[in-house]
Amino acid sequence: MNIKIIDIVLKPTNNKRLNSLCGPCDDNLKQFEHQLSITISRQNNIFKLQGLSLSVDIAIKTLILLYENTISIHGAINDINPDQVSFAIQYIQALTQQPNYLTNIKNNFISIQMQITLKHRIIKPRTLNQARYIANIFNHDITFGIGPSGTGKTYLAIAIAIDLLERKKNQHIILSRPAIEAGEKLGFLPGDFNQKTDPYIRPLYDALGDVLGYKEMDQLIQKNTIEVIPLAYMRGRTLNNAIVILDESQNTTITQMKMFLTRIGFNSKAIITGDITQVDLPSYQESGLAHAIKILSVIKDISFNFFNKSDSVRHAIVTKIIDAYESCD
């Protein structure tokens, strides 16, 4: 067995942050020891680790990640608990199994992917699949998020879009949905096309408002920095310096999905979310999302991320409802 003994120094020294990292009575360090079968001792900001080489390496990366996540936001230190330690270890273990994530990238890469830092709040993944999804969005120009409702696909995509906008990595956010209603016909709804489609794209406004705040959302929409539009309005456009999110993509046709993906211009990202079990298209039409999974999954530059009921962050009863419907299929 390859046993490794090493000291690491966490900087800058900050007792409040170190206490948050270690937890009450060193509960967080005990979680490291239990989960990775290593030993950890600490003197101030110097940590001595001993154990199998791979386990120690994972512990080092996780300690650095978590210490960075204790950075004060508006004067408050982020508290770390054993559950977060366990999740972070799993996250690092997953990354170490995919070396392309870590090639030629500094340690702080992991921190960037682990959370979404906005002006007024920090958004952290609650499951390993969410963490991978965040990492893949940051590292790919085209990312698919596929799975049941309530798993954070659209919410996290919007949060990352706001983050990139605030850091001036992109200049524009476009949110879109295909104009297909669940069991309803748009033609029977009152009003012009905008009035008919507004209720359907309203969930995108709700997610934006929750992440950004409704006042700032309205200001950015007024400036045309953020657009919320039906998919049909994207035809003929080339979208440069933009984050483009296509929600409910299971309701695109193959032609619509191709149209959307070929709109992406320079310095842009596309995030496509959907649930292939919730297709509202006529039975004779294949879902553009299902078709894209089949023909594009061989392209390494495109990331596909699959969620399941365990990733649900809505009310616990939602998971039970998903189980009930799945058992009938």
List the helices and strands and how they pair.
Elements (H helix, E strand, L loop, with lengths): L2 E7 L5 H8 L4 H10 L2 E5 L2 E7 H16 L13 H15 L11 H7 L1 E2 L4 E2 L4 H12 L2 E5 L6 H14 L5 E6 L15 H20 L1 H9 L3 E5 L11 E5 L7 H8 L7 E6 L13 H9 L5 E5 L9 H13 L1
Parallel strand pairs: 6-10, 6-11, 7-8, 7-9, 9-10
Antiparallel strand pairs: 1-3, 2-3, 4-5
Helix pairs in contact: 2-4, 3-4, 3-5, 5-6, 6-7, 7-8, 8-9, 10-11
Pfam families: PhoH
Subcellular location: Cytoplasm
Family: Belongs to the PhoH family.
Task: Summarize this entry quickly.
This protein folds into 2 domains: 3-113, K Homology domain, type 1 (Ribosomal Protein S8, Chain: A, domain 1); 136-328, 3-Layer(aba) Sandwich (Rossmann fold). The protein has a 6-stranded parallel β-sheet with strand order 8-7-9-10-6-11, with helices on both faces. Strand 4 (116-117) and strand 5 form a beta hairpin.
Please explain how this structure is put together.
By secondary structure, the chain is an alpha/beta fold. It has two domains: 111 residues, Ribosomal Protein S8, Chain: A, domain 1 (2-Layer Sandwich), CATH 3.30.1370; 193 residues, P-loop containing nucleotide triphosphate hydrolases (Rossmann fold), CATH 3.40.50. 43% of the residues lie in helices and 17% in strands. The protein is built from twelve helices and eleven strands. A hairpin with a 2-residue loop joins strand 2 and strand 3. It is globular, with a radius of gyration of 22 Å.
Shape: globular
Would you identify the CATH H-level superfamily of the largest domain?
Answer: P-loop containing nucleotide triphosphate hydrolases
The number of domains: 2
- Structural classification: alpha/beta
Contiguous helical run count: 12
Please give the largest β-sheet.
Answer: 6 strands, parallel
Q: Stretches where pLDDT falls below 50 for ≥5 residues?
A: 99-113, 182-186
Cα distance spanning the termini:
49 Å
Subcellular location: Cytoplasm
Protein name: PhoH-like protein
GO cellular component, one term: cytosol
Family: Belongs to the PhoH family.
